Amino acid sequence: MESESRMGSGASEASSFGSVGGKIGLVGGGNQSAALLDLILVWPDPKVVVVVDADPAAPGLRKAQALGIATASHHLDVFRYPVDLILEATGDPQVLNDLLRTRPAAVEVIGAGSLRFFWELLQRLKVTQEQIIQAERLSAIGHLARGVAHEFNNILAIILGNAELMARRRQSRSNLEKLKTIEEAGWRAAETVRRLHSFATTTGGREFVAVDLNEIILDAVAVTRPRWKDEAEARGFTIKVITNLGPLPRALGNPTELREMVVSLLFNALDAMPEGGQITITTRAVGEMLEMSVSDTGVGMSEEIARHIFDPFFTTKGPSRTGLGLSVLHGVLARHRGSVDVSTQERYGTTFIVRLRSAEGSPNAERPATDAEVPGGLRILVIEDEAQILHLLVRTLQNAGHTVRSAAGGQQGLSIFGREKFDIVVTDLSIPEVSGFEVARTAKRLDPGVPVILVTGWGDQLDPQHLDESGVG
Ligand SMILES: Nc1ncnc2c1ncn2[C@@H]1O[C@H](COP(=O)(O)OP(=O)(O)OP(=O)(O)O)[C@@H](O)[C@H]1O
Ligand SMILES: [Mg+2]
């Protein structure tokens, strides 16, 4: 009895082989044909309509039965089914001869000799298809994430700004504690939004400079040292970090993003080694590319987990984690026109291999790494003593495409203003040393055309005459 294959999805029955149709008969039910069945099942068309083997215990035959595909015991029985193509997987020349002699003119037969080629082709096709699906999914999620990040940035700025301003007024202790909780939660959310944005940003290249990847790795190893050395030892286990850094040309990239990428890989490796182990970081030049591998001796991953690690918000580490580390890394590498591969084995460890482009011959190669520079954006000086608000302001303005310089106090702000040209100055009113008003006045004296924006929640208490005198718009 003939039955439909599991993947039969009503998709077109049109020819997949040009003149040959899309119905396959598989002759021989050994391991090879079981594996072939798996591969072919990925697509709705062509489909396998019958599997033939004399041995009822043959793995390919049993798989076919489990999938509801028809089976038969004699190789010539294959012609009782409407097949367009026969894959002869027994390797028996007699069987192949029989099939070739008996076949109707419209039915093609591929012998075991050519099957290997067919098999490789299918496998490559499957990998390519998975890559396309993954790329499309990430691009759709990226689109959504950009919108969400943008919207949430604005909302968080309002929540955090107001919490901060309320905390500055006289408050009861319990209110202050609540405001602190709001602020902490807000900053956690802001960090998630920042990573989301970093994952979703698609425009690359403009902040790229020639970077020393080995130096970035050593930096990342140094900043994570408290976790892999001190914290691990305090908890009674040891983690060794070995760096095996070969001579490299400079990479073309954004140093901050690349550092974050290495830190993220190190943190993941540490998470995977709760009882200690070893991380090995190796770099080498491969043609035009730079290659970095980060290997750990940790718990490794199952195939199923490994398939999802680049999905945003995918984490196996519980609700306190965002699961954005590797999605951000993927976004960063896509922007850098680099790539990442992973190989892993449960209980033995994981290796991530990252490839980046060399800066050789790039017009940006000789530029030193400085603040982000955006043609067409404004040059903005931001003065704010609250580190977190400063960070948020700088981020928001940079995300909007502006070049931002920052200062934590009036004195520092004015000294930067004296050296560089700005289109706008944004300053908090109550900053240490020199007040916002004085900053505005001095800035106006040095450059009468420069607009100064005072950021404060105390607008209703400001003296209009004072504002006028300072030249604040
Ligand atoms: N080196 C590794 N060894 C084993 N599993 C890993 C490794 N790196 C990543 N993973 C798996 O991939 C998942 C996703 O990693 P990713 O860095 O994106 O998120 P996370 O580490 O869970 O959370 P976050 O990075 O946001 O704190 C992890 O939860 C873990 O299951
Ligand atoms: Mg992570």
Description:
By secondary structure, this protein is an alpha/beta fold. The protein has four domains: 23-110, 3-Layer(aba) Sandwich (Rossmann fold), CATH 3.40.50.720; 137-200; 209-357, Heat Shock Protein 90 (2-Layer Sandwich), CATH 3.30.565; 379-470, Rossmann fold, CATH 3.40.50.2300. Helix content is 44%, strand content 18%. It contains 14 helices and 16 strands. The chain has helices at 31-40, 59-66, 93-102, 112-168, 173-200, 213-223, 225-234, 255-271, 303-306, 325-335, 387-399, 410-419, 436-446, 464-470; strands at 23-27, 47-52, 70-72, 85-88, 108-110, 209-211, 239-245, 251-253, 277-286, 289-296, 339-345, 349-357, 379-383, 403-407, 424-428, 452-455. A five-stranded parallel β-sheet has the order 3-2-1-4-5, sandwiched between helices. Helix 4 (112-168) packs across helix 11 (387-399), helix 5 (173-200) crosses helix 10 and helix 13 runs parallel beside helix 14. The longest helix is centred in the first third of the chain and has 57 residues, at 112-168. It is elongated and about 100 Å long. The N and C termini lie far apart (85 Å). Bound molecules: adenosine-5'-triphosphate and magnesium ion. Magnesium ion (MG) binds at residues 264, 267-268, 325. Residues 264, 267-268, 325 line the site of magnesium ion (MG).
